[in-house]
Amino acid sequence: MNQYQEETNRNLIHNILNEVKDEFTEAGEIFENEDIEAIDGDLPTQKHFPGMIFSLAVLKDIVDSVSLTGIGLVLTTITSISIAVILFCWILLNGGGAWKKRAMKNIWARFVAYAVLETIPYINLIPFNTILVWTIHNKEKKLVILFNSALEKFKNAGF
Question: By the 8 A CB rule, do 23 and 149 touch?
């Protein structure tokens, strides 16, 4: 490859990266240099809505609100902790490849914050777990679309 072709390729890559960064910015995300490794490979697949996990999150939020009445406080605590462990494992297993790590970036802080907030009476009436599962799914869905678009741009350009 001669110097002119190398310069042309560098300019093309630079232009594509600027398009990708603009697309991410429009979607409320930031495309960082380490994200380049996430678009170097196969297209990430869109996951289906995690219905079972979402149902467990709703159930946990309901159980948390019932515990305020004093009815079955021990039972609701055990149930709530069990479901929290399942949600924790789901979040842990959800952080796979590079683009998924990007999706999970701020989720751990939210999980811990929600867990702390749930210990405060009456605050635990807010469905934190349901919000968390919904947020994770939507963030992942948005990032899959953005990374697929970026990868398609590079593939269409011959890279």
Answer: yes
